[in-house]
Amino acid sequence: MNRSRKSGTASTLFSLQPEGCEITLGDALSIVGQLPSRSFRCCVTSPPYWGLRDYGIPGQIGAEEKLQSYIEKLKQLFGEIRRVLTDDGTLWLNLGDSYTSGNRRWRDTDRKNPARAMVYRPPTPSGLKPKDLIGVPWRVAFALQEDGWYLRSDVIWHKPNCQPESVKDRPTRAHEYFFFFSKSERYYYNHAAVREPSNGNGAMRNRRTVWSVSTEAFPGAHFATFPSSLIEPCILASTEPGDRVLDPFFGSGTTGEVCIKLKRQFLGIELNPAYPKLARQRLGWDT
User: Fold this and answer.
1) Which residues share a beta bridge with 154?
2) Residue 143 has pLDDT above 90, yes or no
């Protein structure tokens, strides 16, 4: 699912197996805009984080000078996604946060993962101070809520193996947000499919909003990809076998991998031409 990029490139459709599972190379907004209304039951995705990842694609989402431009691009895309969801459809949206730079426009090289970071820092958003936590996930969530989405839950993705930070004046970040939205007031949600153990005696309870899932490395990706155990509850709760799932930022293909396992169909959209090949290899389609 990781971090697709956006630009104005034309799309290319790959013929894939199994039937109903597809990866499309191209601009997410352009492609989603051509999809039929009410054709997907669920969307599970993670856009590029603002000012934190560089995928080498001109015009990519996340490289905007202004935070509001980033938010507006996402609001426009997810407005189209709301259209292509069924009336009982839902959206699971992962976003990470960042801190202001104090208007320092350069960034030190990430020694552990040189491919991960931007070579620049965006300017400090209006109204914020140096070293402020920006609150990007919540700003996006509120923008989507205002645009018509029902904001139903904020899930904390706790990372037991989070990356260490050298900071000495705040706690090390060990979580990200997974927001759960619905298109309508009433929507499909199978709570029984995602119950969790409540004690050591086999009793079960409704799933809580803190999910402790370690990140996983994937060969060739140069970043920590989403673990399938993080995506499975989203798809189990929001779809039934045979339903179609959309991921407009497909990356290395975690959403597709989980959909195949759970007998769901999917469409993955990816801008960077390197990632569809990586995803196909991961899914066993290139031999």
Assistant:
1) 179
2) yes
**Distance between CA atoms of residues 229 and 173, nearest Å:** 21
Average pLDDT, the chain: 87
**C-alpha torsion angle, residues 162, 251, 86, 18 (rounded to 10):** -120
Judged against a pLDDT cut of 80, whether residue 10 lies above it is answered with no
Q: At 34, is the pLDDT very low, low, confident or very high (cuts 50, 70, 90)?
A: very high
Contacts of 127 (CB under 8 A, 6+ apart): none
Take residue 40 and report the two structure tokens written for it.
């997907």
Tell me the domain boundaries of the chain. 12-283
Check residue 17 and give its pLDDT: 72
Residue 31 contacts residue 39 (beta carbons within 8 Å): no
Please tell me the distance from the alpha carbon of residue 266 to that of residue 272, in angstroms, as a whole number: 19
Dihedral sign for Cα atoms in the order 58, 139, 169, 212? negative
Q: How far apart are CA 181 and CA 238, in angstroms?
A: 11
Instruction: Determine how β-strand 40-45 pairs with β-strand 244-247.
Output: parallel
Q: Can you state the percent helix, strand and coil of the chain, rounding each to 5?
A: 25, 25, 50
The SS3 of residue 20 is: coil
Q: In the block, which residue shows the tokens 């292509």?
A: 84
Is 70 within 8 Å of 123 (Cβ atoms)? no
pLDDT tens, residue by residue, 100-125: 876 554 445 545 444 445 556 788 99
CA 269, CA 13: separation in Å to the nearest integer? 9
Tokens read off for 123: 């300017």
Which of these CATH numbers, 3.30.450.40, 1.10.10.10, 3.30.479.20, 3.40.50.150, describes 12-283? 3.40.50.150
Distance CA 112, CA 207 (A): 35
Tokens linked to 276: 């569809």
Neighbours of 270 (CB within 10 A): 29
pLDDT at position 172 is 95
